[in-house]
Design goal:
The complex is a heterodimer of chains A (563) and B (829). Chain A is of the alpha/beta class. Helices cover 43% and strands 16% of the residues of chain A. The longest helix of chain B is centred in the C-terminal third of the chain and has 25 residues. The chains are: A alpha/beta (563), B alpha/beta (829). The interface between A and B is large, with 39 and 39 residues.
Chain lengths: 563, 829
């Protein structure tokens, strides 16, 4: 099945997935090994009447990866088993599409554990290949509780074939993904990485997912999937299904504790429910492992903390040369505490292995801070390596109209679904007029579109130059920002250190420029969040636009920590 | 003549005025010291001959011989009762002289008094004086008016209003500027132009002043913003005394050669002043015959003014800052002071805001049960004197608005005109009459404000109403409705949308009351700063801000630098170098004694007494207050005057303040010093015989008094014998002689000769006046020459052996052209 067909399917009506095996027809949970000892029963269960109304049936291959099987089963070549099992399922189910299931390796991945990220990818790739060989129409990553593992699987499967991938995350009774990720950041990370549906399985079978789905729906550009809570009657199950569809679900599944009758009834009901829309245009959002940042005029102003950058910082340079990340660590915490929304990470320093240092730093920062990262490098290979492993949706700094960036950085960013900063400059340099800059923005966006990017995925850099060298410099940037905000409706960002270069009391120029740009629709800035004037301006923006009322509640006083 | 006919006439061709009348009359036998008006009435054939000669030389317009025909001037000859009769008769004579071949414009000229707020003559009395003369001239059949040789912008305004309220005839206003490019009161050409053309003058320009070269600069300055034709009537160069006879250094041919540059600079109406004759007019005519005047500006620029500075508001200009702190709402101290008609706080707030960087001072004196009209008028005058910035009259009360706009010596801003039918019509009518710029407040009084579409509809409605009264859109500032932060994002968004609409679609000038945003919040300035910047990013042109907040003002400097309105970033850089200095200066609190010093420097007349009493209470001795506070303060004022930081109005206000302090201390000084307070020396002052110009001399008297000299002022037109008699009688040490005219300056020599003959060799003579200079002083044997009042004080100190720090560094002599009294020279005809 192609991803497009999957999309067509869910656009017709809500789609039903069968409950995972072992289901309520069996008394206890089987291990992977037992599946092969009870193949007949498994096939019988998959073809039973409960699945008559199912649109997609799972092949119970979840545990059959090389890490999970090491202990569970020995002797049999696991990949052949995947292929064989899939073949049997397909044969038994005829026209109903069968999706291969993959699940946890049972090990913790880097940077949280010891399993190398690429080993995990290889493991999922080999299982996926086998399942495809057996006739899998798509994949379900089931029962994930580790975003990094889900990412590894998703990357592996997406590298195989263009078939649909559904990611199933386990949420606890607080609505958190086990492992501490907020469902919204999981959604942002995984949909950017190319998942076709994202769904949730509650650890507590009686929990209704409707409120969670409703909350996520505005941010979802892929199908949402929900498992109905455990029910006692078919009618109850139908109602629960209806509630999930009303909350925005495009796919439903039953808990394995549901009865076959319940699932059948739900399947029948779904035939008569209208399809839920899937939002086409994406959202501007970044995520880290734990948390997410929404960008745009409807959201708080986002400061990208600029300090993790060795340029001009002797101490940091010395530390990095010795592989010491202590200062990176403290810069990160300090910037977080001062109110940065995103952290820029730049390891551009002669004489060090930038790729290794960047991976080390981003790995460390992923564990340390909930703030999403902005990957600031000119080297496409470094960019790709970091994006592959970063357990969130990062911001790429940057893609420009320079040929090399277009050809190398842009595809890498696109593959991992990162947002990118669009620098309106070309190999010929920085255009002087707003008009010329607009032309560069349009041309880069056109190329980006061919990689599947939308305008919401880019952040246009206003590229402000020094006013003491050119008094028109600020105006050109403000006009570009205005055009981006109004005509293009894209996010914009400026760096605040250039504009005031060579002037006394630079903070006034910087904060006034920030304010003026905000007035034209600026949504982000790369700045040092230790600068009081910058953070006070940001806080004022958030107060004025209703994102933060503490200023009003304090009678206008800025809190000492924030200024 | 209709105003519109005059306009077309002056746009089509260069209009030729007449030349000097006074010198021509003298040449034909008019003796010195008489009223020319009365003399001409007795010798009508003389003026007929002169005016016919001008007409034949090419004059399109001749001035009636009524330069000194106002009630105040005639009173000097005891002829005030004859004012109406004289003017009507003189107008008729001119009419008879030129028939229908030239126009006769009724001549209105200075009263010789200063009009409030710069002097004692109440504004409406000045209007009445001129209205009387204007009415008489209309009865005599004049075709239009010229208000000329004006040194006081306020007096010119009074005359202009008087003419406009009397008839519909065209009226030209012509000011007299010194070589420093300002009038005696400190008014610069552009401020004069803006003020007068907006008040309805049909032509504006300058006469007398200097020779034609300098006048071309004045005209060029005015031309940039002139919507009316410009007038230039220069002297025949500079006056020189040759063998006791005044001559001007420019021959007719040379004079004629300067006319083309004047037309190129933008003049459309030309004539001659002192020293010119029909011959000059003939060459003028010949030189300009083929020239066409440059049409008036079509720039749609908002310009407002005070008496001493003008201010452009709009998109190509730095952000205009309105200081809105003169507003009793929420300010109990100000409200209490206003209820007692005490303007001390108003003055202080105005000065503070000016110092902090405000460009316009907004005045709101609305209080429950207050007499808003009178308070507004008084506050407008105090702010004018205290800060000298353009003023925004913030009221919805029609009477208050009219009272203030009427007396405001500048082009004010009427804040505001709402879309409420009744207010809108009345306010527009008022703004049109006084030429004020208006602030459109797009609310309809319903209490709800609606979205930006509704607001824009209100703006259009107000603009349409303004247009009906002849107020163009570029003279309207658009209030973009800023409310408190708590009003929420919809309100803030609306403000930005209105600004956007103004800038991009409607080409209007948006204004934002940014300080409203944080009203009621304590530490609030970041909100103001941020919103101001956001609005500025959209193209805001003017904002109400709290100028006391350094953050906000710093941000404004940054905005201007970023918006490209601060070439070379020089203002931004200056700001921060000055800020460091100011921070160093203001770290110490001021003691009461220091505040006495400040009060003199700031001209805080109202606060002086209170501050002195405080200082005395704190134990400072009266002698110390005089020696260490008052005198150093007035010295600083003098320095500021020299540096052109202060102008005559400030000098007088500060001197008055000092005198108030002195009067209070005098009895204490007497007691402390055992009997008579010590006086520096006795000075006798007089304007010499045949000369009735005493403005300069009075200022000198005032200043000497303030420096603790004992001044005996003999007045004007004083015979040499009387002066010598007084010197003997009083045992004076110093005699100061003043003469304005070249015909009377020779009297000075008579006085000095007589003193020598009377063996008064110990007495030192100092001389001054427009045409007098160092060279002449030496020639006649005077001990010294003073260029202005401060110079006179220094000279007197020198004579009486007082060491002043300024003496060594700053010689008390100046070039005669620097003389502040030059402007008073007038038409010495």
């Amino acid at each position: 099945m192609h991803r497009r067909e999957f999309r067509n399917l869910i656009c017709q009506r809500p789609v039903l997935l069968d409950a995972p095996l072992p289901s309520s027809c069996l008394s206890s949970r089987w291990s992977e090994a037992e599946i092969f000892h009870n193949l007949d029963e498994v096939i019988a269960s998959l073809t039973s009447f409960k699945n008559i109304c199912c649109d997609i049936v799972r092949c119970p291959s979840a545990g059959l990866n090389r890490f999970a099987m090491k202990t569970a089963l020995s002797g049999e070549p696991p990949m052949a088993m995947n292929c064989e099992l899939m073949r049997l399922c397909c044969a038994a189910l005829g026209d109903t599409p069968v999706f291969g299931t993959v699940s946890t390796t049972g090990q913790r991945l880097e940077p949280y554990g010891t399993l190398d990220f690429d080993d995990a990818v290889t493991c999922y790739a080999e299982q996926g290949r086998a399942l495809l060989e057996g006739g899998a129409q798509g994949f379900i990553l089931c029962g994930s509780n580790d975003i990094q593992e889900a990412r590894a699987a998703l990357i592996a499967l997406r590298e195989l074939q263009d078939c649909p991938c559904i990611v199933e995350l386990t949420v606890n009774s607080q609505g958190q993904v086990i492992g501490g990720t907020e469902p919204l950041s999981a959604l942002i990370t995984l949909q950017a990485l190319g998942a076709n549906a994202i769904g949730f399985v509650p650890t507590e079978a009686s929990l209704s997912l409707a409120p969670l789905l409703k909350q996520l729906k505005p941010f979802a550009t892929v199908a949402l999937y929900g498992v109905v809570p455990r029910c006692t009657t078919p009618v109850e199950c139908m109602l629960a299904g209806e509630a999930l569809v009303a909350a925005g679900a495009n796919l439903l599944g039953c808990s394995h504790q549901c009865s076959t009758t319940d699932q059948y009834a739900l399947g029948v009901r779904l035939h008569n429910l209208p399809a839920q829309p899937v939002q086409k245009s994406g959202i501007s959002a970044l995520s880290s492992l734990h948390s997410s940042v929404l960008l745009g005029p409807q959201h708080p102003f986002a400061i990208v903390g600029e300090r993790i950058n060795p340029t001009g910082k002797k101490k940091l340079q010395a530390g990095l040369r010795q592989g010491d990340l202590e200062l990176v660590h403290s810069f990160a915490l300090e910037q977080e505490q001062r109110g940065a929304a995103v952290l820029d990470v730049n390891m551009g320093l002669s004489g060090i292995d930038e790729k290794a240092m960047m991976l080390k730093a981003t790995g460390m920062l992923s564990r340390l801070t909930p703030l999403p990262l902005c990957i600031d490098t000119t080297r496409p290979d470094v960019m790709e390596a970091v994006l592959r492993r970063y357990p969130g949706r990062a911001l790429v700094n940057s893609v420009s109209g320079e040929q090399a960036r277009i050809e190398e950085t842009l595809p890498a960013a696109a593959k991992y679904g990162a947002m990118f900063i669009l620098l309106p400059l070309t190999d010929a340099g920085i255009p002087e007029t707003t008009k010329e800059r607009i032309a560069v923005v349009e041309s880069v966006l056109e190329t980006a579109t061919s990689y599947g990017y939308g305008v919401e995925d880019c952040v246009v850099d206003g590229l402000v130059m020094t006013i003491s060298a050119n008094p028109e410099a600020a105006q050109v940037t403000l006009d570009l920002i205005g055009w981006c905000a109004e005509t293009l409706q894209a996010n914009t960002i400026v760096g605040l250190s250039n504009v005031s270069f060579g002037m006394p009391e630079r903070q006034w120029i910087n904060s006034a420029f920030l304010g003026m740009a905000m007035g034209r629709g600026l949504t982000m800035a790369i700045a040092n969040p230790s600068a009081n004037s910058i953070m006070a301006t940001t806080q004022s923006y958030n107060t004025l636009w209703g994102h933060d009322l503490t200023l009003l509640l304090n009678g206008g006083a800025l809190t000492p920590e924030n200024v | 003549m209709k105003k519109s006919d005059f306009k077309t006439w002056a746009e089509r061709q260069v209009l030729i005025l007449d030349g000097a009348t006074g010198t021509e009359l003298a040449r034909r036998g008019m003796p010195a010291g008489v009223s020319p008006e009365a003399w001409v009435l007795e010798h009508p054939e003389v003026i007929r001959e002169i005016q016919r000669a001008y007409m034949e030389a090419g004059s399109d317009i001749v001035y009636s011989c009524t330069f000194g025909g106002n009630r105040c001037k005639l009173e000097e000859f005891g002829l005030a009762w004859k004012t109406t009769e004289l003017n009507t008769a003189l107008a008729r004579i001119s009419r008879q002289a030129v028939g229908n071949q030239a126009m006769v414009f009724g001549d209105l000229a200075p009263t010789g008094l200063f009009v409030e707020p710069f002097g004692q003559l109440p504004f409406d009395e000045a209007v009445a004086v001129y209205a009387q003369q204007a009415m008489a001239l209309v009865a005599g059949g004049v075709d239009g008016f010229v208000i000329e040789t004006m040194m006081d912008l306020q007096e010119a305004r009074a005359a202009l209003l008087a003419v406009r309220e009397t008839c519909d005839l065209p009226v030209m206003v012509s000011m007299t500027f010194g070589s420093d490019g300002r009038t005696l009161n400190g008014t610069d050409p552009l401020s004069a132009l803006i003020t007068l053309q907006s008040l309805g003058a049909d032509a504006v320009g300058c006469n007398c002043s200097t020779g034609p070269e300098d006048m071309a600069k004045v005209i060029a300055t005015m031309k940039r913003h002139a919507t009316v034709p410009l007038l230039a009537k220069p002297n025949a160069g500079m006056p020189r005394l040759k063998n006791g006879i005044t001559t001007f250094d420019m021959e007719a041919d040379e004079f004629g050669d300067h006319m083309e540059p004047l037309v190129t600079a933008g003049a459309a109406i030309l004539g001659g002043c002192c020293g010119t004759t029909p011959e000059y007019i003939q060459t003028l005519k010949a030189q300009t015959n083929s020239l066409c005047p440059t049409p008036p500006t079509n720039k749609r620029q908002t310009v407002v003014s005070s008496y001493k500075q003008s201010l452009c508001i709009g998109k190509d200009q730095p952000l205009t800052l309105f200081g809105g702190r003169i507003n009793p709402s929420g300010q109990l101290a100000l409200a209490a002071a206003l209820r007692k008609n005490d303007m001390t706080l108003v003055r202080r707030l105005a000065q503070e805001q000016a110092r902090q960087g405000a460009h316009v001072i907004d005045i709101n004196v609305h209080m429950q049960g207050g007499d808003e009209a009178n308070l507004m008028r008084a506050a407008a005058l105090v702010v004018t004197k205290g800060a000298g910035l353009p003023i925004s009259i913030d009221t919805v009360n029609i009477q208050a608005a009219e009272q203030a706009l009427r007396v405001l010596p500048g082009r004010g801003i009427l804040n505001s005109v709402s879309a409420e039918e009744e207010n809108m019509e009345a306010m527009c009518q008022l703004a049109a009459k006084y030429g004020a710029v208006i602030v459109c407040m797009p609310v309809d009084g319903s209490g709800s404000f609606g979205g930006s579409a509704e607001v824009i509809a209100h703006i259009k409605k107000i603009l349409a109403c303004a247009a009906r009264y002849g107020i163009p859109a570029h003279d309207c500032l658009i209030d973009s409705l800023v409310f408190t932060t708590a009003a929420g994002k919809e309100a803030h968004r609306r403000t930005l949308e209105i600004i956007d609409w103004c800038v991009r679609s409607a080409k209007l000038t948006p204004l934002a009351g940014v300080s409203n945003l944080s009203y009621g919040l304590e530490t609030r300035h970041w909100l103001d700063v941020s919103f101001l910047c956001m609005a500025a990013g959209r193209g805001l042109s003017a904002a109400f801000i709290d100028t006391s907040s350094e953050q906000v003002v710093n941000a404004v400097f940054a905005i201007d630098a970023l918006a490209g309105h601060d070439p070379h970033m020089s203002r931004y850089i200056d700001r921060f170098s000055q800020q460091a200095l100011a921070a160093a200066e203001t770290t110490m609190p001021r003691t009461a004694g220091e505040k006495v010093f400040d009060a003199v420097v700031n001209g805080d007349e109202e606060g002086m007494e209170r501050l002195l009493r405080q200082a005395l209470k704190q134990g400072e001795s009266p002698n110390s207050l005089v020696d260490n506070r008052l005198i150093p303060a007035i010295n600083l004022v003098g320095e500021k005057f020299d540096r052109k930081e202060y102008f005559l109005p400030q000098l007088i206000t500060c001197a008055d303040t000092m005198r108030k302090g002195f009067a209070l201390l005098q009895p204490l000084l007497d007691a402390a010093n055992g009997g008579s307070g010590k006086k520096e020396a006795k000075v006798i002052l007089a304007t010499v015989q045949g000369d009735i110009h005493d403005i300069g001399k009075n200022i000198v008297a005032l200043m000497l008094n303030n420096y603790n000299f004992e001044v005996i002022d003999l007045g004007k037109d004083v015979a040499a014998e009387d002066i010598i008699r007084a010197v003997k009688h009083h045992g004076a040490d110093i005699v100061g002689l003043s003469a304005l005219m070249t015909t009377t300056m020779i009297e000075m020599k008579k006085v000095i000769d007589l003193a020598q003959a009377s063996n008064l060799t110990d007495v030192r003579f100092m001389v001054g006046g427009a045409v007098v200079d160092q060279h002449y002083a030496k020639e006649i044997g005077a001990s010294g020459y003073a260029g202005d009042a401060i110079g006179a004080v220094r000279l007197a100190q020198q004579f009486s052996g007082i060491e002043s720090e300024q003496l060594s560094s700053n010689p008390p002599t100046k070039d005669a052209t620097d003389d502040q009294a030059t402007q008073e020279q007038g038409r010495n005809q």
